[in-house]
Amino acid sequence: MIRGIYCRTNVDKYKGVATFPKLDMIPRIGETVEVSIDLHSYYQDKKLPTRMQVVDVTHTSNGIIVELWFKDVDVKAAELNGVNLFQ
Predict the structure, then answer these.
(1) How sure is the predictor about 20, in pLDDT bands with cuts at 50, 70 and 90?
(2) Helix (H, G, I), strand (E, B) or coil at 8
(3) Domains held by the chain: number
(4) Tell me: the pLDDT tens digits for 70-80?
């Protein structure tokens, strides 16, 4: 029985804001998760990607933890626009 699917990331710019929607299905590694639709403009205004890639899925007794990271193409696009995603 799945208790819940929780998304997390170690990217400081995304911490402290409930950015990802509640998921109904367990995403697989390599798939993409979009930020909540009501936060799209918030992240676009800050020139941050509105999607992140699933890099790890951990099954625990309390639920499933989905680890997210930037997609390579979004990192390159940000660099071309003069945005450092890692500061």
Answers:
(1) confident
(2) strand
(3) 1
(4) 899 998 998 99
Looking at the DSSP bridge assignments, the partners of residue 51 are 34
Pairing of strands 32-34, 5-8: unpaired
Q: What would the mean pLDDT of 57-67 be, rounded to a whole number?
A: 90
Q: Which residues pair with 17 in a beta bridge?
A: none
**Does residue 86 sit within a domain?**
no
Segments forming the whole domain that contains residue 20 = 5-80
Is residue 68 a part of any domain in this protein? yes
Contact 58, 65 (CB under 8 A): yes
pTM to 2 decimals? Answer: 0.81
85 within a domain of the structure (yes/no): no
- What are the residue ranges of helices labelled H in the chain? 40-45, 72-80
**Residue 50 domain-assigned (yes or no):** yes
